[in-house]
Structures are given as C-alpha cells and as structure tokens.
Amino acid sequence: MPRCEHCQQQWTFKQSIKKSFTLVAGMSCPYCETDQYLTKKARRKTSMLNFLPAPSLLLPSIFGLQIYASILFFLVALTIMLVLYPNLMELTSNEETLF
Predict the structure, then answer these.
(1) pLDDT attached to residue 99
(2) How is the chain split among helix, strand and coil, in percent rounded to 5?
(3) pLDDT tens, residue by residue, 49-82
(4) pLDDT tier for residue 10 given thresholds of 50, 70 and 90
(5) CA-CA distances (angstroms) from residue 74 to 21, 78, 82?
(6) What pLDDT, on a 0 to 100 scale, did the predictor assign at position 77?
(7) Which positions ≥6 away from 3 have C-beta within 8 Å?
(8) How far apart are alpha carbons 26 and 91 in whole angstroms?
(9) Pair 11, 19: CB distance under 8 Å
(10) What is the radius of gyration, based on Cα positions, of the chain?
(11) Which of 23, 26, 37, 79 is the most exposed place for a label (fewest CB within 10 A)?
(12) What are residue 43's phi and psi, to 5 degrees?
C-alpha cells in the first residue's frame, strides 16, 4: 500500500483505489491533505496494468470462445488489476516527469 511521503501514513486499500480514479496528476493525502504524486517508476508499472483486461476482449475471436467466457476473463483481469494497483503505488511529494 502507498505511504504518504510527507506524514508517513499508509493509505488503506479503499483510499488508494478511490484516489487512483482521479483525473488530475496529484492526489491529496487523506491524512495531511498534501498533494502526492506517483513516482516515475510506479507510473511505468501501473501503466502496464491498464493493458491487462484488453486481450480478454479478443479471446472469442482468436480461440472461438463464447462471449460469456470473454466477459468472465475480462472481469477476472479487471479484478486482478484493481488488486495489484494499490500495491504498486509509490508516492512522492514532487511531480516527476516520465522522461
């Protein structure tokens, strides 16, 4: 789970998921209200998770599976993505560029 760099408080799973669905780069710490950003390393790791559910949508056409199997694979991949995401989050007080 991520830990605030400013106050050193560890975020809960629910807080991590909730903060990850924001559209702005910074996430305010639920404890000290300072802006926290994902580290460059964490953004690279978590961006790979975004591609996990996509191949499950192609399974019916590639392997001749029924649509229900594709939906099941998609939901499993989405669940895995949501469980892994908070564990890969690392926070910093300064916004880092990717390059």
Answers:
(1) 67
(2) 50, 10, 40
(3) 888 787 877 777 787 778 788 888 888 888 988 8
(4) very high
(5) 19, 6, 12
(6) 87
(7) 9, 10, 11, 91
(8) 10
(9) yes
(10) 16
(11) 23
(12) -65, -35
Nearest to 74 by CA among 51, 45, 95, 93: 51
Q: What is the pLDDT of residues 11-30, one digit of tens each?
A: 999 888 888 787 777 888 88
Q: Which amino acid is at 28?
A: S
SS3 36: strand
Which residues neighbour 97 within 8 Å (Cβ) at sequence distance 6 or greater? 40
Place of tokens 């199997």: 69
In one-letter notation, the amino acid at residue 92 is T
Kindly tell me the number of DSSP H helices and DSSP E strands found in the chain: 4, 3
Query: Could you identify the residue written with the tokens 């990717």?
Result: 98
Number of residues that this document lists for the chain: 99
At residue 35, what are phi and psi to the nearest 5 degrees? Answer: -75, 135
Could you tell me the two tokens for 95?
Answer: 């916004």
- Residue 29: both structure tokens together: 């710490």
Q: Using CA atoms, how far apart are residues 8 and 5, in angstroms rounded to an integer?
A: 5
